[in-house]
Amino acid sequence: MTFCWKGLPGSVLAGLLTLSAGTGVAVADDIKIAHVYGMTGALEAYAKQSHTGLMMGLEYATDGSMEINGNKLVVIEKDTQLKPDIGKAALAEAFGDDDAAIAVGPVSSGVALAMLPVAEEYGKILLVEPAVADSITGADWNRFIFRTGRNSSQDAISNAVALGAKDVTIATLAQDYAFGHDGVAAFKEALAGTGAELAFEEYAPTDTQDFTAAAQRIFDALKDKPGRKFLFVIWAGGNNPIGKIQAMEPQRFGIEISTGGNILAAMKAYKSLPGMEGATYYYYDIPKNPVNDWLVSEHQKRFGTPPDFFTAGGMSAGIAIVDALRKAGSTDTEALIAAMEGMEFETPKGKMVFRKEDHQALQSMYHFKIRVDPNVEWGIPELVRELKIEDMNIPVRNK
Predict the structure, then answer these.
(1) Which ranges of the sequence are coiled-coil (predicted)?
(2) Integer Cα distance of 7 and 75 in angstroms
(3) For the chain, where do the domains classified as CATH 3.40.50.2300 start and end?
(4) pTM for this entry
(5) Dihedral sign, CA of 393, 358, 287, 370?
(6) Per-10-residue mean pLDDT for the chain, 399 residues long?
(7) d(CA 260, CA 149)
(8) N or C terminus of the chain: which is more exposed, having fewer CB within 10 Å?
(9) Helix (H, G, I), strand (E, B) or coil at 277
(10) Domain 10-150+287-362 -> CATH class
(11) Nearest Cα residue to 116 out of 95, 91, 81, 93
């Protein structure tokens, strides 16, 4: 399937239209986009936001037409159920049976890692959003993978800026799968040279309910350390341990809790942590640009709430797809890769750039400090400093 503009070579232009059988009427092809993501399961809230954002991004970038040069954008949804084998099969079905030109997703890093070889097998682009693990655009990457979502290194470096300093000791608590392990490894690397020490690592299953034993091990590792002491939490989805561990009074040992940004529902726990510092990918009130202004206004108008953490990511993916299709002038994969490598595009976070070496979107991150307002349900991440693309040296890990 291809689509083109006037003035392009005839061999390319010929792919723009197909003739309806027996009528001689030119009919534009649909451009199929598969959203393969965890519609059900523990990350369902993330998935819903991501899909809402994707659709709003496609709408915004096409000025509401959901078409590119007369070619209708058709979004196909497939549920990974957060299971790697199902995600792999769903992506193969989208590319092989549904003839999707490009796919977006998934939510889970573990599912994403299973899906990467499918994109290579079919020779079609998988735009990863919002799965985070470094290995997606690192050790397990292939040239058909692009990512608008942030990676573990971007999370880690921005949070290291927020916490790293001389006479600081940190322990981590993370989920025991790719997201957690990659996150801690990147955080440890990012802390090097800041003067801070990462003294202890604790991992817990994603379905953990009781964090008593884990918290006690962390307390024991930090309680006798001099200077400032932090427990840095890397957690996605339900069972977030922050509130439960805060109830165990880590302050008895001089331990402060810190974490990165999250969805608004999860940030309700941040109200018990006034003054907490960390770094976030997105909070609706931080970026000041026309794309975010539109997203905030339209989301509030349509849903009665501000856009959330993953809504912005989904919108960024939608905008990237439209910009790439326009720039390539075709749904041909090689044309899209050529168009997307080094491509700059405007998102709710401002400028993103697909780095040529690994197709990771370079982007701003935001150092915040939590402020509590009794009239707001969640802890408010107030901007301390925007960390721009040029402020962060994000490693290339696919070599």
Answers:
(1) none
(2) 29
(3) 10-150+287-362, 153-280+365-391
(4) 0.89
(5) negative
(6) 41 38 56 97 95 98 96 98 98 98 97 98 98 96 98 94 95 95 94 95 96 97 96 90 94 95 94 94 98 98 98 98 97 98 98 98 97 97 97 90
(7) 15
(8) C
(9) strand
(10) alpha beta
(11) 91
Contacts of 361 (CB under 8 A, 6+ apart): 146, 147, 148, 149, 150, 316, 320, 352, 353, 354, 355
Nearest alpha-carbon partner for 257 in 286, 284, 285, 222: 222
What is the pairing mode between strands 26-28 and 17-19? antiparallel
Asked if omega into 106 is within 30° of 0 (cis), the reply is yes
Q: Measured between alpha carbons, how far is 102 from 128 in angstroms, rounded to an integer?
A: 11
Which stretches of 19-108 are DSSP H helices? 44-61, 84-96
> What CATH number has the domain spanning 153-280+365-391?
3.40.50.2300
Distance CA(174)–CA(204), nearest Å, equals: 6
Burial pattern 18-27, b for ≥16 Cβ within 10 A else e, equals eeeeeeeeee
Q: Hey, what are 391's tokens? A: 């402020």
Residue whose tokens read 């916490």:
163
| Coil, helix or strand at residue 18 | strand
Report the C-alpha dihedral over residues 190, 195, 200, 203, rounded to 10 degrees: -20
